Amino acid sequence: MTFQPVAPAQSRSQQIMAQIESQIRSGAIKVGEKLATEKELSEQFGVSRSVVREAIKLLEAMGLVVSRQGSGSYVRNDTGTAVSRLLSLSVSPNDRGVQDLFEFREGLELLSARWAAERRQSEDLDEIRTRLEENRTAARGHDAEGFTVSDWQFHSRIAEATGNQYLTVVLSAVREMQHDVVAMMSSDIGSMERAIGEHERIVDALERGDAAEAEEAARAHIASTRKNIEEMLHRER
């Protein structure tokens, strides 16, 4: 299997997912075949292993790949899942579907925050805090791409802390669809700073194990993000 390096300015995990999906559907990578390792794929695509890992999660969500602990990732003969249909949709910054997608994401993020507050382990909190620090570093450096990536990882790590694999992969798919609109918001330093403050409120609630406050903090964060993007779209019209 041979792949092309991906462009850093675009959603890299989705590009990787699309290339692997294409080879699976064409038969170049056959049912039951083991994919190359994360290290090998990261070298072929010219990206970090975490980006490859996110792409594999998306392929799992689509029902194309199954990961076996200690063995690797293998191609499945299952291409008709609901999440596969979800991922086949595309949402541009000026698409009316942005509103529907934010509404859908809000429900998922509220569940994620509540369950994470109830179920998180100490190591989860450590990693979530690390992602928050990466948020701050990116904002200080006016690094829009770095902020978009660390924002993604922040929310993904909270979802993983719930221990619910279905919530994790569906929320990952929804956030992937929102990549362009979130990246647009991340180009504004004021929006980045507001998001960091909102992230801090969520983390504080998670540390206290306060599920109700975590849910409310997540609700406020999504509402703020949605408002920022709506204002940007309005200015562009």
Automatic annotation (TrEMBL):
SUPFAM superfamilies given for it?
A: GntR ligand-binding domain-like (SSF48008), Winged helix' DNA-binding domain (SSF46785)
Q: Offer an example of a GO molecular function term for this protein.
A: DNA binding
Q: Which domain of life is it from?
A: Bacteria
Question: What are the protein's UniProt keywords?
Answer: DNA-binding, Transcription, Transcription regulation
UniProt keyword DNA-binding, yes or no: yes
Q: Supply the InterPro entries for this chain.
A: GntR_C, TF_FadR/GntR_C, Tscrpt_reg_HTH_GntR, WH-like_DNA-bd_sf, WH_DNA-bd_sf
HTH gntR-type domain location, by residue?
10-78
What is the protein name stated in its UniProt record?
Answer: Transcriptional regulator, GntR family
